Amino acid sequence: MLANDSDRDWEYWGKKDPYFGVLIEPKFLDENLNDHSVQDFFASGERHVEHVYRAIRSGTRPDFRPVRVLDYGCGVGRLIVPFASRSQEVVGVDISSSMLEKARGNCERLGANTVSLIHASELDSLTPASFDLIHSFIVFQHIPVARGELILRKLISLISEGGVGAIHLTYADSRSAFRRRISALRRRVNLVHGVINLARRRRFSAPLMQMNCYSMNRVFDLLFDMHCSILQVEFWEHRSFRGAMLYFERSSRPLLPT
Questions:
Q1: Which helix (H) or strand (E) holds 235?
Q2: CA 17 – CA 214 distance, rounded (Å)
């Protein structure tokens, strides 16, 4: 039986294929990495961060210039490097110690000197309401939903009054019934999972990346309870999973009834 241990699985990716664990493309497999592919990897992070800032500034915050930024699920530093060039302080958080070690080396190499890196287990050590921007992209989909909701609540508590959250969540699996059954079989039977890995030119023992879908009703209730208002929503679809990037602003006061 395959155990669903996302912490263990992400430490595996951090050791074996850290770049591929962040962006699932063959050119980012450890065996295929070269100067050009690493450059592409970080260029994609630059484009994403520029998009996030543009989206927030067009959604009623044209003067948005966060001083303190937190990126949850920072991996090897794809996004914290461009965040560092746009703010005074960045905190990168990840569940994998190996990922954090790679991120630390990349920050040093790329001159991101304002970045601090912490393990996800240290999240409670951060001061509540102390960040102007909390960001997470293509991360929560790999976290079991019950745990992910608790983490989301904690992250929102770290946003300062008037600060912004930019969080990506997967909400629907549009794969065929056959593909969903195969995925369920891979979770239950090691041999099936390993053979499919080999067919996809991956290591036999490479863990199955969890893909979890969140209830938007529950997420919106959480945002409401924590005094957040939605600025905008962007829809995403990747490999038949539908997701949404939620941009929201936090207030210290409850939302007023209309």
A1: strand 228-238
A2: 27
Asked if 244 and 168 touch (Cβ cutoff 8 Å), the reply is yes
How far apart are the C-alpha atoms of 71 and 64, rounded to whole Å? Answer: 17
- Burial class of residue 25 in the structure, from the number of CB atoms within 10 Å of its CB (0-12 exposed, 13-18 middle, 19+ buried): middle
Separation between Cα atoms, residue 131 and residue 69, nearest integer Å: 6
Print burial letters for 202-212: b (CB count within 10 Å at least 16), e (below 16). Answer: beeebbeeeeb
For the record, the structure tokens of 82 come out as 């461009």
Using CA atoms, how far residue 106 sits from 75, 111, 118, 135, 225, in Å, is: 11, 8, 15, 19, 38
Contact status, residue 80 vs residue 86, Cβ threshold 8 Å: no
Is-above-0.70 flag for pTM? yes
Could you give the CA distance from residue 199 to residue 254 in angstroms, rounded to a whole number?
53
Strands annotated E in 137-219: 159-173
- For residues 221, 133, 213, 21, the Cα torsion angle rounded to the nearest 10 degrees is -170
Structural domain boundaries of the chain? Answer: 6-172+211-250
What CA–CA distance (Å, rounded) separates 31 from 16? 10
Spatial distance between the Cα atoms of 233 and 166, rounded to a whole number of angstroms? 10
What would the pLDDT profile of 100-151 be if each residue is shown by its tens digit?
A: 999 999 999 999 999 999 999 999 999 999 999 999 999 999 999 999 999 9
**Cβ contact 87:67 at 8 Å:** yes
CATH architecture assigned to 6-172+211-250: 3-Layer(aba) Sandwich (3.40)
